[in-house]
Amino acid sequence: MDFADSPAEAEFRRRLRDWLHDNNPRLPASSTSDEYWAGQASWHRALYDGGFFGLSWPREIGGRELPTVYDVIVDEELARAGAPPRPSLGYLVHGILRHGSDDVKRRFLPGIVDGRDRWCQGFSEPDAGSDLASLRTRATPAGDEYVIHGHKVWTSYSDAADWCLLLARTDPDAPKHRGLSAFAVPMHQPGIEQRPLRMINGITKEFGEVLFDGARVPAANMIGEPGEGWRLAMTIVSHEREPGELGYVARYAKVVNELADTVREDPARFGGEQVRELAWAMVEAEMLRLHVCRRLSDRLDGTSGGPEGSVDKLLMTEAEQAVGHAALALGGAGRGGADDTWLNLYLYSRAQSVMGGTSQIQRNLVASRVLGLPSS
Amino acid sequence: MDVRLSPEQRALRDSAVQVVDRLAPAAVRDLDDTERLAKLDAAVEASGWRELRAASSPGQGPLASAVEAAIVAEELGRGLADAAFLGPTLAADLRRLAGATPSASRETVALVPDLSAPAGATGDGPGPGAVAIDARGSTAALVLLPVAGGHALAEVALPVVPGPPGGMDLTRPEVPVEPGARPVGVAGERALGAADLEAWSALGLGLACADLVGTMAGAIRLACDYARSRRQYGAAIGSFQAVQHMLADAYVATEGSRSVALYAAWGVDALPAGEALAAAALAKAYCSRAARTVCEVAIQVHGGIGNTWDCLAHVYLRRALLSIDLLGGVGPNLARVLEHHGIGGSDGLR
Hints:
The complex is a heterodimer of chains A (376) and B (350).
Chain A: H1 7-23, H2 34-50, H3 70-81, H4 90-99, H5 102-114, E1 119-122, E2 138-142, E3 145-153, E4 163-169, E5 180-186, E6 192-196, E7 208-218, E8 222-223, H6 229-240, H7 243-246, H8 248-265, H9 272-298, H10 308-331, H11 341-349, H12 359-370
Parallel strand pairs in A: 1-4
Antiparallel strand pairs in A: 2-3, 3-7, 4-5, 5-8, 6-7
Chain B: H1 7-23, H2 34-47, H3 66-78, H4 86-97, E1 107-111, E2 121-122, E3 125-126, E4 131-132, E5 140-147, E6 150-157, E7 175-176, E8 184-192, H5 194-229, E9 231-232, E10 235-236, H6 241-270, H7 273-301, H8 303-306, H9 313-325, H10 330-340
Parallel strand pairs in B: 1-5
Antiparallel strand pairs in B: 1-4, 2-3, 4-7, 5-6, 6-8, 9-10
Helix pairs in contact in B: 1-2, 1-3, 3-5, 3-6, 4-5, 5-6, 5-7, 5-9, 6-7, 7-9, 7-10
């Protein structure tokens, strides 16, 4: 049991620290401005080309097959340098790795990992949120293609995406969980309409609606077998709940460092209640870092996914929202001057208990699958 | 980095689990079973767990790291073990830091009345209201005497308390140190400096966190068992979402606590004293907030039964309350976290 770096880990950390010294893009805090998202693609490619992204994934898709714990080092050093977090793509990679054919893996995964291709995820619909399996977007066979009709929503970064991992109903007669299939749909084609959504903090580059009206996808782009869509979706959402996969540890620590700098610069401006919110943000951000250390160490046994991901998602939400409350207390409403960064960061934090499965859905899963409580 | 327990550490945990499952109280009435208690005490004595922090040989480091001590503390907390461990362990660590020979008979440490710091003393005796914690079976308690260059260790004899022991924790009784108790025998070859006391405080906070993690896990198991068996409206109450979500939140808080507590325990021996204390303080703030809520949830899930003396839920809560107070609860430890980040003047949080 050792939290300290091995010699190889220490060497990796030193190389990364040196690299960040010269390659930090100094983007604003993620999720508070559209400028961040405009710079995210080049950050992804730079991080990958530097040898610091996709560390634990297989070599044939561009990974480096390092132990999962290296991702913690990346998160810690990104936070220390005030650099943006690593791209949150692990759940797509795991989903395609587990369910895709060799052909699908070979064609799509290298471009996801190295940042050449941008992806979005078309799961939720206006009438299928928590009850995802009731989705109604249809994919109808036509020769060696499928034709898509439907309406997706909360589709993050859809207007910047080259590809959409789409969940659609291919068998309307099958029971609702069994009639779904997944596809890699090219986004640059007629029959797809983008409608950006403006979030409560004003940003427009994150959430979107996507309308499919006769868009086409080759049958060879189906990921998994016909009817395997639900199982693929469950793989993806279980990984989407893991903070180790998402790299958010760096995001929270970066904000906490900036908030602490502000208080140190002029402590007299802040009262006990405000400083207490900062202290809790420090505690929560560090809790998440240590929790990720524990979870990624557990994965050295080769286990991954599972219902414990819901625990991780709830802890990640707790951390993000505590950091948000500190940002609000120290720089929010009326205290931020001309710059609304911290107010916006707080407002964005409210989405964490909704996206990737609401906190209420996560609690249902913890109660039934972890605690073994009876179903209602 | 690999924070999985080693095979030896897992074996230690398994042996602690066995002792607890066999001899710890399974019901409130078991707390009065002196025969069981004597067997548990003998098993803990035979295990050597109370000596884990004693010097491996004179002038050397401890026999085992704080991680091993925390593994034992967690299991004792989970099982509401009512044999002394925390107090004697902290006393052994103080003796090691001061270069003193191990005590011939069982001893513990004395703290100030609100348990937030070790009790100081003068040649006339400890300050008013000092209490010896986790004092079952101890004949003496260690206090700190100011000397040039820091503090020396001194022993005060503990009174033999007739009848049931006192304090809010029914499993780890406190004994008041008599105001007139004169320190006997200054123990140790060297004065304890600031770094020594930081390292020792980190150990105390870390063990309290581990005990809290165990206490939370035990309280949740008790509440989940009840939620599966108790029926209302024709269904187990554990099938109702309102109950499920309380227990899910309690479990999540315990898992977050487990992560910070593990790092706190590791840091005691692996980090410089100041950093170890900061890590332990951060863990203690988190675990203290979590544990009170988790134990309160365990009472709530039991409904009316949970508010009766004969339900174990309050024994978990009481054990948690003592661990929370030990070397400071939420406020003092948030202040320590801020001070470590260079934000002082946070006395308002204490």
